[in-house]
Amino acid sequence: MVNAERRRYIGKMDKDLFKSYTSKIIRVDEESLNGYAAYVKVIEVNHPFIVGEKGAELCIGDVGYSMIQFLPDNENWGLCAIYDNHGKIVEWYFDIVRKNAVDEEGCPYCDDLYLDLAVMPDGRILIFDEDELQSVYESNKITADEFHMAHRVKDELIERKIADIHYMEVLCLRLLALLQKGETE
């Protein structure tokens, strides 16, 4: 059973945090790149979105910030690249997911599996919510297959160098070019 709170739609933002934003969603069908991509630009916020502990806070959402989101076909991950109001990368964030799909209204989404990782601009890879994944597994909210798949996908992202600065920069530039295609034509 899918927890509705864990369903994430690309191109849509939490109204509790983001007062207004623009977004564009496209289908990407290229030789080695298939899935759905979105570009989101934050116009107004109810308050900046700050994560981390005191002394190590990181702003991941504020006025002028933008995001490139990507849900690749036949993969169990989704990407959100976050840029600050000067166009500088804040982080590349991966959600490990049960699936990427499109709902009956044509809106792309992923069903999040709790485990996440981030690639920081300095190359550090941070892993989040392993304890939460363990907890939902122990409470039978996810299956053993889903639990093991989440760890396998995390490891593959790192081993295949997908969770890598160079790969992320190239991928996001390519996605941004596709998202902007047609806007100036």
What does this structure look like?
- It is a single chain.
- The chain has helices at residues 130-138, 144-159, 165-180; strands at residues 7-9, 18-30, 33-45, 49-51, 58-61, 66-72, 77-83, 89-102, 108-119, 125-128.
- It has 185 residues and is of the alpha+beta class.
- The protein has one domain: Beta Barrel (FomD barrel-like fold).
- The strands form two sheets. Strands 1, 2, 3, 6, 7, 8, 9 and 10 form an eight-stranded antiparallel beta sheet that branches. It has a two-stranded antiparallel sheet with strand order 4-5.
Alpha plus pi helix count:
3
Q: Work out the count of structural domains.
A: 1
Structural class: alpha+beta
Helix-strand topology string: EEEEEEEEEEHHH
Short description, anyone?
The chain is α+β, with helices and mostly antiparallel strands and 185 residues long.
Descriptive keywords:
about 180 residues; 8-stranded antiparallel beta sheet; two-stranded antiparallel sheet; 3 helices; about 20% helix
Helix and strand layout, with pairings?
Blueprint: E1 7-9, E2 18-30, E3 33-45, E4 49-51, E5 58-61, E6 66-72, E7 77-83, E8 89-102, E9 108-119, E10 125-128, H1 130-138, H2 144-159, H3 165-180
Antiparallel strand pairs: 1-9, 2-3, 3-6, 4-5, 6-7, 7-8, 8-9, 9-10
